[in-house]
Acyl-CoA:diacylglycerol acyltransferase
Amino acid sequence: MNDDRPTRRGVLKAAGGLSAALALGATGALAPAARAAAATAPGDGFGLRVVDRDERDPRLRYYRFQTAAIGWNPGVNVLLPDDYDTGGRTYPVLHLFHGGGLTADFTWYDRLGIRAWTAGKPIIVVMPDGGHAGWYSDPVSSNTGPRDWETFHMTQLLPWVDANFRTYAESDGRAVAGFSMGGFGALKYAAKYPGHFASVSAHSGPASLRRDFGLVTHWANVSSAVADLAGGTIYGAPLWNEARVSADNPVEHIDSYRDKRLFLVAGTGGQPVDWFNQVTEAQVLAGQREFRASLDQAGIPYEAHEEPGGHVLRTPLFLRDLDGIIARLRKA
């Protein structure tokens, strides 16, 4: 991709096309079929008020919160180990983020079977809403009320989870991972909050915001304007808030990944997939290679995989990643 750099006009056109596809794929907020209150349900706090919950399943807990950070009530699924209610142990936590146009229910639980993947494994998995195109960020502007996803996830939800479940509330007890936009969110949060996570994983997640005339930044702006912010943007338009871009750009914060377990996955194309998947994954691959080159220069180890195909979650690599996460974190 570096040998045939796109024109600025081409970059903007590609960003618009990617965003339109993302918007068409949006599915709505987390919405489990049934709800039931529980007398021992976790309570409010940290700027959150529980307005809906379902705790009847012995493993899967669902909560919907009212928060000033988000203009609607985002949902969160908490997947517990098999023996959580009977064992009395403390567990490490994986914060797992969905991609753009999807929700945590659809991506990780309903469609891909995270419940089966974690059966028998000693880890809590927290799967929050992140908006259709929230980019795990507090946007520069919104025309539809607050959409401060970074504030919700890091300032409110993370300490709420630690306060209401038996977790290790420290770096060695937490991992963060995600697919696509969620992979970017994982890389971003691990860098901006370096004392919070011991392991970070990006499955087809962008790692560079400025390469190729800032294609990923344009993509974030246009997709958020279309799908989430009613014309507002993550990073500002027509001019970016350059300080915000730099603060969020993983490749500009390489030293923040030192002493962390780092797991990266990207596709190399070469299989018949649609235009959206090909263009998206080509940019992901180029950005991850740039990111890895910087890690190499800094002497920071990582595990990276390049596999044929487009912008999809590769289940065998996610399962390998999950085992690595459990091995890295404090033991239950």
Observations:
- Residues 1-39 have pLDDT under 50 and may be disordered.
- The first strand starts at residue 48 and ends at 54.
- Residues 275-298 form the longest helix (24 residues).
- The chain has one domain: 8-328.
